[in-house]
Specification:
Layout: H1 15-28, H2 32-38, E1 75-79, H3 85-92, E2 96-101, H4 105-114, E3 120-121, H5 133-140, E4 151-154, H6 163-166, H7 189-200, E5 204-209, H8 212-215, H9 220-230, E6 235-236, E7 240-243, E8 254-261, H10 280-283, H11 300-307, E9 314-315, E10 320-321, H12 355-361, H13 374-383, H14 387-400
Parallel strand pairs: 1-2, 1-4, 2-3, 4-5
Antiparallel strand pairs: 5-8, 6-8, 7-8, 9-10
């Protein structure tokens, strides 16, 4: 074992010094982390061979704080809540959080950690399982009347419809297909959600998913759900795909939104912003004083490969991309049930992003804490709707469907 340096050297590392550290680690046959500690450095002190050639200087995008101020108190019930991306956006836009249904106990812990006053239906005090329609209805009937004058919002688990999920499999394998509604568990959750909407008849409902839901079977399944709701009096805005990068979220992320109302008023969606925000607008800030900052302990060979990448280039072996500070990030990925998300490479540090950095790309505030293992934290962040996008949708619904003035 090497004796670590007494004090960390906080001066920026030079490329020459960095290469000498790499050579030292190879010669001494020690892990990169140990070699860095010996020289008083950390992974965050390393640089790319081409660094600081692109710098984001256009300021910061909107945050949830920019939406606060109008407390109209329209009630919200969410389903398939996850770690609360939609809920945070609606909360910031003045909605009153009434209930959340989530069947994953770890996600429930995150919700309760950050919003102890929210009523969360889920483990360990309940199932939170939307597929148990009668249980959900019974849980809500105490506080939610039929013809509910509020919003139901939910995104049935999207994995059966996700192209990214299927890219984990060989194209020649039987799993390389969007199984969609043939999926034994998640495939029918959309219609379970529709059943709950039909029972309570909220003034407005929101269905969120990946664009694959619209395209599956030529749109037959989604059309069936929409037609079912139209038959009981809802006017449904044509299912629309929004790219979060067009709404001041520093990330390319497409989500499908189907919104219906029984108020007879036309649903209005937010207008795209004039420009896009590069990943550097949130990744150029340090990680001091915040949580969920664990970095992967990369092998020497990986970091040496990463360091040679230019902006936007992919490391083919690790299948990770170096982000550009002046372009929105590629989509933050959730990963599968058994593995964590495969995060992208920091624009200026040859390492993958931390959970907190991914959460910033998703527009979660720094004081929103994700619980569980690092892999499961990535899952929560990657599954979420960006709260700032949700806040813009919520603001439009408050003004168009509920006619709230001043929004």
């Amino acid at each position: 074992m090497l004796d670590s340096a007494v004090l960390r050297d906080t001066r920026p590392v030079s490329l020459r010094k960095q290469n000498s550290i790499f050579a030292f680690a190879e010669r001494e046959r020690v892990e990169l982390s140990e070699a860095l500690a010996y020289f008083g450095k950390t992974l965050d002190d390393l640089i790319y061979e081409r660094s600081r050639e692109e710098i984001w200087s256009e300021g910061a995008p909107r945050s949830l704080d920019d939406f606060r101020g109008l407390e109209h108190g329209i009630p919200l019930v969410s389903f398939f809540t996850g770690c609360g991306g939609i809920d945070l956006g609606f909360e910031a836009a003045g909605f009153r959080h009434l209930a959340a249904f989530e069947f994953n106990e770890l996600f429930c812990k995150t919700l309760r950690r950050n919003r102890p006053n929210w009523k969360v239906f889920g483990p360990p005090t309940g199932s939170g399982d939307v597929s148990n329609v009668s249980e959900v209805i019974a849980a809500l009937e105490c506080n939610v009347p039929v013809n509910f004058e509020g919003v139901f919002a939910g995104g049935p688990p999207c994995q059966p419809f996700s192209i990214a999920a299927n890219q984990r499999f060989s194209k020649t394998g039987s799993n390389f297909k969007r199984v969609g509604f043939s999926h034994e568990q998640n495939g029918n959750l959309l219609f379970d959600y529709v059943s709950i909407i039909k029972h309570f008849r909220p003034a407005c409902f929101l269905i969120e998913n990946v664009p694959g839901l619209r395209d599956l079977d030529g749109g037959v399944q989604l059309s069936e759900a929409v037609r079912d709701l139209e038959n009981i009096g809802y006017s449904v805005h044509p299912p629309t795909v929004l790219n979060a990068a067009n709404y001041q979220v520093p990330q390319f992320r497409e989500r499908l939104f189907a919104i219906g109302t029984r108020t007879g008023r036309q649903v209005r969606l937010p207008a795209p912003s004039e420009g896009m925000y590069g990943a550097g607008c949130v990744l150029q800030h340090g990680l001091q004083g915040v949580q969920n900052t664990e970095r992967r302990s990369h092998k020497l060979g990986s970091v040496m490969r990463y360091a040679r990448l230019d902006y936007g280039q992919r490391d083919q072996l690790g299948r990770v991309d170096r982000l550009s500070p002046c372009r929105p990030s590629k989509t933050v990925i959730a990963g599968g049930t058994n593995g964590g998300g495969r995060s992208h490479l920091h624009p200026e540090i040859p390492r993958t992003l931390s959970v907190r950095e991914c959460a910033r790309l998703q527009t979660f505030p720094d004081d929103y804490i994700f619980v569980g293992s690092t892999a499961r934290q990535f899952t929560q962040v990657g599954n979420a709707v960006p709260p700032v996008l949700a806040a813009q949708i919520a603001t439009c619904l408050a003004s168009s469907v509920f006619r709230v003035k001043g929004m």
